[in-house]
Amino acid sequence: MAIGKWIGGALGWVLAGGSVLGAIAGYCVGSMLDDAFNASDEGKGFGEGGKTFRNDYSDTHFNQRPFEEDRNSFLFSMLVLSSYIIKADGKIMHSEMEYVRNFLRNNFGEQAVRQGEDILLKLFEMQKQQGATAFKEMIRKSCVEISFHMNTGQRLQLLSYLIIIAKVDGVVSPEEVSALKEVAGYLGLSAQDVDSMLNMGATSNQQGGLDEAYKVLGISPNATDDEVKAAYRKMALKHHPDRVSTLGDDVRKAAEKKFQEINNAKERIFKARGI
Predict the structure, then answer these.
(1) Which of 78, 94, 101, 69 is nearest to 24 (CA)?
(2) pLDDT (0 to 100) of residue 204
(3) Of the residues 26, 108, 146, 274, which has the fewest C-beta atoms closer than 10 A?
């Protein structure tokens, strides 16, 4: 398994000295990290055909490494936290695993699916070996590191992926909600952020009600018009897709979809109020 194909030979801040996520990476990929660094030195990248991901300055002389490292660190962090959410209710659901597989397949190719799944299985084994309390503490420390290196928008998008994983089987258990709110707190986010994103989706179809729209904006149905407008502006600023622009087109597209859900909630409320 050429791990360089998945992580592009650059995990950036994840591999910083003494980091918890670095230790997890060492456990999950072990000596294969050497292959990743060799792939990077040889000009091989993260993806099929030796291609690397580039930012908007790909035709300039800017160094592409920071973009690649940030992206790969984000994705590895997502896998680590996903392992906690997937097992929160004591079950590993096929639909949840399939969402992760499809995410990797669509963005990085078939080889990435096998690699990502191997990493998740090792994380599940680590959780079994450590026990729930120790693994939870490791997740907390990982989130502290993530908070230090990611901006609020990036952490919100990371949380959004975790919520999608929890929702994908059609039922979000109380244990999953609790785990999501724990992770949100560890990431410096709020329980309200979780509640908001759990209600996204309902506002984009005819069955979605006003109650869900208000929950998306994090306000009461009794809020004044000015409070509704202020809540929308706050959410729009916090979740703007530009905040994740350094993480690649696929992450930005997911952020744009989330941003549209916020707009749908606002439009539903405005229409009901005649604003």
Answers:
(1) 78
(2) 52
(3) 274
Distances, alpha carbon 193 to alpha carbons 20, 182, 185, in Å? 25, 12, 10
Domain ranges of the chain: 4-149
Where do the H-state alpha helices sit in 87-151?
Answer: 94-108, 110-130, 132-149
Q: Which strand (E) or helix (H) includes residue 176?
A: helix 174-186
Identify which of 137, 144, 5, 130 has the alpha carbon closest to the alpha carbon of residue 77: 144
Contact between 83 and 99 (Cβ < 8 Å)? no
Is residue 205 classed as helix, strand or coil in its secondary structure?
Answer: coil
Task: Choose between 258 and 58: higher pLDDT.
Answer: 258
**C-beta separation of 228 from 273 below 8 A:** yes
> Measuring CA to CA, which residue among 146, 168, 164 is closest to residue 155?
146
- With b for 16 or more beta-carbon neighbours within 10 A and e for fewer, the 124-139 pattern comes to eebbeeeeeeebbebb
Angle between helix 132-149 and helix 65-86 axes, rounded to 10 deg: 150
pTM of the entire structure? 0.75
3-state secondary structure of 82: helix
* CA 275 – CA 271 distance, rounded (Å): 6
In angstroms, the CA 12 to CA 29 distance is: 15
Residues 6+ apart with CB under 8 A from 30: none
Q: What is the pLDDT of residues 229-252, one digit of tens each?
A: 999 999 888 888 888 877 777 778
